[in-house]
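## Example record

The block below lists the input lines for one assembly entry, exactly as stored, with component labels intact.
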Amino acid sequence: MAFPFEVPGPAFRERQVRSWVFQRFARTFDEMTDLPRGVREELAARYPALVPAPVALTDADEGETRKAVFPGSYEAVAMRYPDRRTVCISSQAGCGLGCTFCATGQMGLLRNLSPWEIVSQVLWAGRVFGERPTHVVLMGMGEPLANYDAVMEAVRTIHDEVGISARKITVSTVGLVPQIDRLASEPFPVTLAVSLHAPDDETRDALVPINRRWPVAECIAAAARFRRAHGRRVTIEYVMIDEVNDRPWQARSLAELLAGTDLHVNLIPLNPTPGFGVPASPRVGEFARALRRGKVNVTVRDTRGRDIDAACGQLAVETVGA
Ligand code: SAH
Ligand code: SF4
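Predicted structure tokens for the full assembly:
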């Protein structure tokens, strides 16, 4: 259980503290006004930080998007929409998989986050929203399935204690096939997204180095197995990069690969990073239409947070250890 505090006294005290932390998103023990002052002081002395406090905050989209940088160089983004409150959280500081178009990938892996560091990002967002987030996406820094045990412990806590249903917790993976199968065997059916980005191994090799280990066909097969195991929608993420993977033949080829799999495609216009350009929007539309003609379900993702480097793939902390 990702709860690193020992609460002295009778069992109901711990329940009180948990409720302040997970339901009311308290940031200090001092806020827990129904606890005796002595208990609050004792806890505050023993645990100087209740939840990690951001070292920097940035807002965008007229305050509807907020990015936090946490000590130790990882980030979370809280996004308020008319009908949902989504927090995008990190599973690692940096990432070791080196996808060439991803700012986080260029940082390399600094370290794995602990379960509590992962859960705390959701609690931070709860405080920002003033209420429980409705959706959690593990699409911030890092590869969640490369920090499997910590991520699963965090996910269980987010589910059990914060009360967010497993279906509304999305794990996005670059395509670590054995771990996708392991995830499929968990009793805990989170939503899965697999980052494909190309229908052909030549293009994918150049974008996603781990493709040499688990190529396109294996990733799609693993996504389809997960889909069959859970009956839940599984998304193939496809970041559209100008003149790299946005060509009509690639749309046709992707449609052929996905025929009969019931996998859903989410097209993500690239958030520009050095050396890679975003396709003109008619091109994204054309790609989507070609997939639809091939009977593939497609959505196009919005680009929240782009102007504060808070959009997908732009997370990279400049002030390491701030
Ligand atoms: N490591 C996991 C999850 C974090 S990345 C993964 O790769 O899936 C979350 C999503 O952001 C992935 O689909 C990733 O491909 C995408 N992404 C990375 N760089 C991006 C960029 N520059 N623009 C848009 N999306 C990007
Ligand atoms: Fe890591 Fe995902 Fe970025 Fe690839 S896209 S470097 S797996 S965070």
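The pocket of iron/sulfur cluster (ligand 2) is lined by residues 95, 97-99, 102, 104-105, 142-143, 174, 195 (CB under 6 Å). The CA atoms of residues 5 and 47 lie 8 Å apart.
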